[in-house]
Amino acid sequence: MIEYLTYLSIMTGIYAILSLSLNLQYGFTGLANFGHVAFFCLGAYTSTLIVVLAKGPFILGLLGGIIAAGLFGWLISIPTANLKEDYWAIVTLAAAEIVRLFFLNEDWIFGKGPYHGGAFGIGGIPRPLQSWFSATTYPFFYLCVVIFFLALTYFVARLLTNSPFGRVLKAMREGDDLPLAMGKDVRKFRMRAMALGGGMGGLAGSLVAHYWSFIDPYQFMPIETFVVWAMVVVGGKGNNIGALVGAVIIQFFYISTRFLKDFIPIDAQVLASLRMVVIGLLIVLVMLFMQEGLLKEKKRVYQG
Amino acid sequence: MTVLQVIINSIIRASELSLIAIGLTLVYDLLKFANFAHTEYAVVGIYLAFIFNVTLGLNIFTAVLLSAIFTGLIALCIDRMIFRRMRDAGRVILMVTSFGLGIALRNAVRAIWGPTPRSYSIALQKPISFLGIRITPVQIWIIVTAVVFMVAFHLLLHKTKLGKAMRASSDNPALAQASGIATERVILWVWFIATSFAAVGGILIALETYLLPHMGFAIIIPVFCATILGGIGNPYGAMLGALALGFAENFGLYLNFGNIINLWGFFDFAGEMHIPTGYRDAISFGMLIVILLTKPAGILGRRG
User: Cys-Cys with A65: which of A43, A76, A231, B33 at CB 3.0–4.6 Å?
Assistant: First the structure.
């Protein structure tokens, strides 16, 4: 039971980082990013490349993952920075699939040695400071690592959204006219929001790679993006605490229902599909009846 | 493979995609949102045809017609439950809702029929060979069906009162309503036509390959690409976009880029350079990026 709870907490922490970063892009800036899993994937693979192949330290892998995912966020916003939300959605969705296809097809990256690439995935990713702990106490240590980075991400997100930069993002969400009239280059601000959110997503990716110590392209299917979307819309878009609450609720549901098959006689495949039906319907229902989510955005009202 | 064969393959691919893309562009134009559940209606249609054709033992033509009608009716029910309540919602809200709906539909199909590939009960296809090309009777039927549906659509749009009302409502809904057109009824007709076309297009793909629950997601990027390429809201553009995409996908994989580079005389590659088949989706993504950077309104688009 305690093992399960630690696993649940670690995965919730990692997804909460994703949820915070998507919230920065969608909740605050209004960018319909349907390819968030690309950052997660790039963070995981970059960190693995640095630590496994280049034998770099964990912290370097983490930084590399953040930088690679941030750069990618900046890159994919170049063609769409001036366009409407519809284009954003399809370009980010497609870009995430291309990233996954790249790691699926290019197995040469990891060489021919003990590490396979491509569809076989990469195993034996070292966990940081593993020799300092026993197998039973290590998850608790890793939980602390995840909580530390989650807290860091949360404070960065809060700092950003309360800063003048954050106010420009929120203004852009309501339309380009006002920020343009204030002399803000909306194109650059959108690209920055993508890069910053992307970097946070990359951090989550590195953390997950070093926790699972095995990654393959099938862990980064497009559906992961929409699990994160469910977290943001259920918790409350434009509210950082909401993003955390949403992550806890959805991740608890998502992971706990896996064990449902031990209690009721149901095929694992059917159960997996039904779980996704619930996630899909949940998004629809929130959009229909509760667009603000559980925790509403705090809007500052200025009285003149 | 001869060039003629590649051309035939491109036309087959275009026939399948264009029927789905027409529906997407119609809904997009009238309801002003990118319906990410659109290709999932195609999957619903595919499996409805499976019920009629395999479970109930009807012949494939009856099964296709019944499936198209029932898919349209399902879409009307879904519109009544979800989208009719959200006529005034923002684009992003509708887009996210449709994606949630898409996930629910895809996984409901998967829960019922399972992830294993299935096929319709049609006679084993013996390819016909002439002029060095091979084509199966089913592939001829695919092209014929697509052409028939496209001609029928053209006549509907230009020779009937409904078509006139459809064009008027998408140009200017307020004006159309003021001139006595019941726009709500036009919306229902558009949903019906769009999704039954998607069902037929999906069945055409399934006839050539297999029935798979995740087929809808596999074609979402090419279908959106064809729609945007042709200009959002323009059904003829969608057909043209599908044609361009069909040719780009097939010739992209067929052409020896080593030869092209050699022709330019910059390098001397003895070997061949092909785009690996694993990157088929990347071709549509590449085209999408080029079109967004150069002419985001599409080939026949009217707005940007």
Answer: A43
